[in-house]
């Protein structure tokens, strides 16, 4: 859609600005600007850096009880009007099944997620994004990558992934 005059739209930091995402050649070539926004609680103007997004996401608590952990929307933090950080911050999710018919698929997915959550910070920061907040990371590991809490939400759980649900 063509605009005459000023307009606001969404682009991920990977496509906006060379100082946010040094690996983005389109941003370098086009010198695309980004908006500083005022955080209402701190009354400071902030740019959309991964550090400021991390401050905003860090204000939300991860689900730690069985009742909260089983509700999928509790894993998608709503970071509107945060007390710290950039006022417009959000998350991305990875949607996966819990049960797989092939045990090697199960272990491959768990290994991929462990690597993704624990080894890619420099790459993710290079694109202007931040890693999962520590409180969420801990609970993801406890609930989905192992069964530390005993909630039976982990990928490939031997009790849940038997019978007709196997391979779903």
Give a nutshell description of this structure.
The chain is mainly α. It contains 6 helices and 2 strands; from the N terminus they run αββααααα.
List strands and helices in order, with pairings.
Layout (H helix, E strand, L loop, with lengths): L24 H6 L6 E3 L4 E3 L3 H8 L8 H4 L33 H17 L1 H6 L7 H12 L23
Antiparallel strand pairs: 1-2
EC number: 3.1.3.1
Protein name: Alkaline phosphatase L
Keywords: Hydrolase
Which features would summarize this protein structure in a list?
168 residues; mainly alpha; two-stranded antiparallel ribbon; 6 helices; 2 strands; 32% helix; elongated; Alkaline phosphatase L; EC 3.1.3.1; alkaline phosphatase activity; hydrolase
Describe the structure.
The chain is mainly alpha-helical. The chain has one domain (13-165). 32% of the residues lie in helices and 4% in strands. The chain contains six helices and two strands. The chain has helices at 25-30, 50-57, 66-69, 103-119, 121-126, 134-145, and strands at residues 37-39, 44-46. It has a two-stranded antiparallel ribbon with strand order 1-2. Strand 1 (37-39) and strand 2 form a beta hairpin. The radius of gyration is 19 Å and the shape is elongated.
Number of helices: 6
Order of SSEs, N→C? HEEHHHHH
Number of β-strand runs: 2
Q: Kindly report how far apart the N and C termini lie.
A: 41 Å
**Unreliable stretches, pLDDT < 50, 5 or more residues?**
13-18
Strand order of the largest sheet: 1-2
How much strand content do the residues show?
Answer: under 5%
Helix proportion range: 25-40%
SS-based class: mainly alpha
Measured on Cα atoms, how large is the radius of gyration? 19 Å
The total tally of domains equals 1
Choose one word for the global shape. Answer: elongated
**Sheet with the most strands, sense and barrel status:** 2 strands, antiparallel
> Average pLDDT, to the nearest integer?
81
